[in-house]
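Continuing from the previous page of notes. For each protein in this section, the sequence appears first, followed by its structure tokens. Read the first protein now.
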Amino acid sequence: MTWDVVHKGQRRQINLGQIELGPPPLSTPHATPSDFTKAPSASRSLTLESDHSALVTLALNGFEPGGFLKWTEFVPEGCTCSVLNDGESALRTTENSEIFLWFQAPDSSRIEVELRLQCQQEIHDKMPFDGTLEWAFGSEGDLVHIAGVEWVGASSAQLESMKLNQSPEDQGVTPYSTVPPDGGHGSQVGSSLTYSVQLLANHRDVSPAEFARAVAFDDAFHIERHEGWHKYLTDAVESYGKARSVRSNVWANTNATDAFVTAHLDGQRITVQEALLMSNETWMP
């Protein structure tokens, strides 16, 4: 490097030596939300309560606290839905869906939402389940399709004392023996087409005191015994509408909140759908 100067009318050049410069520094990229934001994961599981009733759990994991989440759960055709736990969301209900909104996701590792499905048709593993998850955090976001469901077993309490899951044979026309329990009351399933409400199913007879504690039902009932199951039912009525009213009363005033309507033809169990076709009645949830 040189420096030119003019002194007393004369130009002089001064050598300042050499300066070595290293290579230019590499540029540092700016961090973006995609560097630290991951899409949340979502899952759906189902626990069968009876042929026509199930608990559905929706679970969210891996979301960013403070972010936006929107889960739209579509209700299967022929079913009605009641929300048991909204996961502290802002809940919106439409004709065929339940919408759960979190405008600021909580500072937790997991969110769970619980629903109860009541279906006209029998709930089975081919039934379609569908929904969407929309999420946003910073400038990142996406809309994810969530299909399918994981089936899980019933709880041990249901299996032992109040299990209402029916085997395929239970929905056929296999004859049942009908025996009033000790201390029980009332009539048995009569001839022709009748309806009852199943309150309890167990692998053994229970005493009147045990039944009272478990169900808190004071009206007439009887027992059906079939393939190791002891099933406690209300006395028979002649129409689905009356049976549905009994079921609503049971739901409201007893512990049997998962009780459901059953149908019999000449003392043999048939599906409610078959009975409605025979009686020309309309199913109601």
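Done with the first. The second protein uses the same format. Note its length before scrolling.
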Amino acid sequence: MSFSLRRFVALGALGATAISSLLVTTDASAATTTAPQGIVASILGNTNGYLTSVRTYFLCNTAKCKTQRSALLKSAQGAMTKLSAQAVMASGASVQQKYRSAVDLFVSDVHLLAKSYNVFFTTTSTVTLSGEVGNIFYLTSDIGTDVNMLSAAEKSATATFNLWVEGEAATLVAMQTDASALQSSTATASIGIFANQLLELACTSMVAHANGPNKSFNTQLTTFANNQTRIAQSEILFLQGKKAPMTEVEVASLNVTVSAQFAALVKSETALVKKK
């Protein structure tokens, strides 16, 4: 796990605060705009409220919310039921072409969110619990981005970078959380495998959402995610004692490249957010 550890330390050195500051809120007009009837109207009118309920339960970190866990759980359960119902309706709905890509991403993201939600309540592993909370964090943000993209399409406009970037920025934060797991002196091979699996899933999400308004940034994002995926896949096999497509020397070299790409990605993202 030495190569993994060095990579994660390099990523962690950038600081979670720097990336967290890039997170933005969803488009407030998405819930108030006059939208077309049907599933798109339902997504625009209701999803942000559902996401708030889910996030409030899983990302609770205040004394007040901790005293309301039972009520917050009930609210999150209801929200997930309604989100999943929306996804079922959306998957078979006939929508205008301008909505198609955002609706398809919405369906995929809700399915992934539901999977992490269900695993959270069935696993007995504290490591898995932590990983699924990270997934829920960035997947709810991905869905927030989907809503913003639908809202822009409803207006026949292009979503601003600030509204699009929500999901991608949250994914970077979640990746730093995965990184911290390997910085622990008690990190085991099983933790290393799980952390790399989480990274691989996060990278897949990044590529799927590399459809923002800045084409250069989309390319930068995809290149980083594809390289990180290659590393994660090989490191999982190393830790399992199996032959990997890359050698350890090649992984070590690509680690250096990926760390530089990560830093460049955060720098570009910060500049684009400030530019608005």
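What the second structure shows: Residues 30 and 159 are 12 Å apart (CA to CA). The chain has two domains: 1-24+165-276, 31-125+133-155. We return to this in next week's lecture.
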